[in-house]
Give the backbone structure.
Amino acid sequence: MYMKKILSVFVLLAIATAVHAQDQLRLNDLEYFERQGVNVLVFSNSFNGGFNDEKNSGIEIIHHGVRTVQGGAVRLNNTPEQWDLVPLMTDRKVDAAKGTIEVTMRYADYDFDSRVVVTAKGKAVEIAVWLDKPVPDALAGEAGFNLEFLPSQYWLKTYTMDGRLGRMPRYATSQTITRPNSEKPRQFKGFRTYDDRGTGRFIDPLPIETGHRLSLATDDPSRLVTISSDDAELRLFDGRMLAQNGWFVVRSVLPTGKTGKVVTWTVEPNAIPGWIREPNIGFSQIGYTPEQPKVAVIELDKNDPVQAGSASLMRLNSDGTTAVAYTADVKTWGPYFKYNYVKFDFSAVREPGVYYIQYGKTRTNDFLIDEHVYDKITDATTDVWVPIHMNHMYVNEGYRTWHGEPFKEGYLQAPESDHFDLHRQGAQTDTKYKPLELIPGLNIGGFFDAGDFDIETGSNINVVQNFIRTWELFKPQRDETFVSQQQRYVDLHRPDGVPDVLQFIEHGTLNLVAQAEQIGHMASTLSNSVLDNYHHLGDAGSITDGLHYDPTLRPYEVSADGRRSGTPDDMWAFTTRNPRLDLRAADVFVSAARVLKGYNDDLAERAQRQAERLRKEAEELLSQRSLNRDPQADAEEFWLFGEASIVHKLQTALDSIPMKDEAYRQGLRPTVQKFAEYVKSFDKDNPYGVPIGLGNWAGVNAVLNFGITVNYAHIYFPDIVGKDEVYRVANWLYGCHPYHNYSFVAVVGAARPKQVFYGNNRADFSFIPGNVAPGLLFRKPDHFENFDDWPFLWGQNEGTIAGNTQYIIFGSSLKKVISE
Ligand SMILES: [Ca+2]
Ligand SMILES: [Ca+2]
Ligand SMILES: [Ca+2]
């Protein structure tokens, strides 16, 4: 008893010391400020991504495990949009001794430099903006220091500004003014995000509140942040007034004519004392077949001690009772980035039924063990997601219209231009058309790229290829979709006697062949001509007015015959010739001709004819160009020898097996052996056993590629790549991954698929069934995330047409393996 008392005094002392140390924000070895429950990152991620303001950069706060604050930087707008200018980080200095991070930012368009110095001060950080030269006249009153708060984590929560109470709005309903366009800071490359309807004025949001001391989320300790400033006014804005993906913004305008330390804020994110993140039990939401390995991966806070013997599989009986089906010790895998991982193996349980996992106080939702759990994994994607993405069609489902027929006016020859979606049109059109001349016949077939509505030719080639591979290997006869090219009408859940995959191949081929016939070669893209309709959310049929653009009319004016308008909204075809793209198209045309023969003979013949012509012309062009080496070709070859090369090369070889003899197959054995070792290497690389990408776009495509190759390698070499390996990618996709345990495939995952995606209905915080999210986005230096209450970050939530058709191959090959 006595000894025990002494011990507890020691323990209490130790805890008190630890609590005191963890009370303070400290600059850690990974170069961010940390205390238990709070991380403050200062330009660990800078604004240099592919699409300007990706809402992933600047000063960021990860608050009790959720990245709720970002965008901290000198910005030129009250509520910056994606294409407003972002600062280039020109220098970043970390001073461990002083506990400061200093970042220098530059706006080259305005020759404007500023510095931000962030210093830990107890539980808070001081953020100071320094200027060596005053704010340029053109930015007077516009440049300010901004910090952005995630709306879905702050709406409906209470705040105070200088003692005045308020509640953060659920929907954008604050006030705006308009100002002359001449006062608007330049947007990216001079594009404009808005259509001013001929007024010559832009919209500027007014602040919701102003003052010097702001506390946000006073009713939620996990989100409470207090900001105070003596030398600058704080203004609270709602960025959603301009753009649905806007965040709440707190900002202070920089004073004009001043240098030195011009704005000082103290920012204190509240930390819940002793906070420990709840364990995330990763498992497959769609469930498990009785025979397959079943291993849950449990993600633990680094301060959360591993609980021995405490994982159980619980069975929900059909009479309403619950029973322990299995209990085992968890096995430690170890640390991976910021968390610690243990595994719970319940493979021994084979009895079909409804189960959940219990670890300590955490229990999962329920899932099935049953031999049929994989039967329907591709149905939502083929029956719903793909047909909704059919361009140039009216798409109906029951009582609901997904979209009207888009782009009835067709496509114009793009003039020489840069583009906001990473395309360029060179000075030469490489066609017989003059800039802005109508190229006839392109408004047919094809699939929307992703959360946007353009036809990316490269992706559409992939789509047709993916459907052809699916068709030739698995011959899916599923018919749930009515497709009439003559009526330009698609009706979901209405069988029409033709297998849907055949109709999808036809639909993709129609657009690609039209490009080859009308343009003479493949366009790089058929895309928006103006930024203000590129970010369209809503009915694809209303992106353009359906009337031919006539520059002799005034903007918004319609001709007397009602067929032309002065609104320059027509889509453009980007036609700079790329013979390598033409070769890819030629390959897919040959396969399409083979598949479509007997179903649509006319299209099959046209595809074959274009294949032969494109190949001949492309080879001639390439041999001419090889005298003068094409840098783009070098870049492509480099990619092939990069990280993806082993998977890519093996997949290409496996795809040829049906056309080759047994000697060829045997010749592949050493490569497949090597691949099998590569597959196993991921068990050491990370706790989840799949290739986890760390790029700005999360890695689902690489994971799916990997999964397809594992499936095919098992189909052709079951003695080298065992059946157990095919479940790796399925587990990952359907919930066994970091951050949360939701299925990355919309509606697929019995109890808990993700609920929001970056689809074209993202403004409704919704999803299109069958979409596959890119998944887990890595933020430097150690944070993975996938928001399920905020759809607008494309790098984690946007499914693409190429990726989702890749998923169909993955799912079809997995079903084949499992059914055998
Ligand atoms: Ca696009
Ligand atoms: Ca059909
Ligand atoms: Ca038009």
